[in-house]
Amino acid sequence: MRLIGSRQAPTRGTHGHTIARLGSAIHLRGVSHWYRSGRSQVEALHDIELEIPAGGYVALTGPSGAGKSTLLSLIGGLERPQSGTVMVGHHDLRTLRVDELAAYRRATIGFIFQHFGLLDLLSARENIELAASLSASSRGRLPARDLLEEVGLLDRAEHRPGQLSGGERQRVAIARALVNDPSLILADEPTGNLDAASAMRVLDLLERVHIERGCTLLVVTHNEAVAQRADQRYRLDGGRLLA
């Protein structure tokens, strides 16, 4: 792998995206969010106060249904909070229009999911190139083969997901998430479908990406061993955030 660097001297590209890259901390102030379930209203998050420094490595734990994925969706601009403020850099996500939120996601966020989200009919290279074709700016795109080399899978570039192990598929998903050189990586249970050895390799890779690129890394996990590797740890329980 070509990932090298140190926490003391992180590097970060600048590509002049329409939506600016992350330049400061993430701030959540008084954030609450709820869903309708029949005639009932279910509170997913209650009065969340959270600060994540730029370049930080944060783990979020808690039981199923605690609101972890909802919190990730709000920071990622996939949903808007019913109340409170979500600031990422200089962007108040609650006030952005739908098209501005889409541009923010394309320019700023790298999403990684538990179930990989790869298209079965496409090769590893083609999955990454598809993501690149949807990117905010052609200048910001990183070549698929370079990204596969970065995650140690250049020799598997033409393999389809069904021909790859779970750990390899997640490494392709990480490469795809890096296509726009994101300043914020949101990983929702990235090791949830992996055996212990593959999980540790994926975490090693994520941490190297975090250090080399100087990006902010937020990992949602049920696994306390995974959470212990982060610089900051928080727990969600019943929609309430605990340090």
Structure description:
The protein is α/β, with parallel strands linked by helices and 243 residues long. Helix content is 29%, strand content 26%. It has helices spanning 68-75, 98-108, 124-133, 144-150, 166-177, 196-213, 224-227, and strands at 26-37, 40-52, 57-61, 83-88, 91-92, 109-113, 184-188, 216-220, 232-237, 240-242. Helix 3 runs parallel beside helix 5. The chain is built from seven helices and ten strands. A hairpin with a 2-residue loop joins strand 4 and strand 5 (91-92). The model is unreliable at 1-24 (pLDDT under 50).
Blueprint of the fold:
Layout: E1 26-37, E2 40-52, E3 57-61, H1 68-75, E4 83-88, E5 91-92, H2 98-108, E6 109-113, H3 124-133, H4 144-150, H5 166-177, E7 184-188, H6 196-213, E8 216-220, H7 224-227, E9 232-237, E10 240-242
Parallel strand pairs: 3-8, 3-9, 6-7, 7-8
Antiparallel strand pairs: 1-2, 1-4, 4-5, 9-10
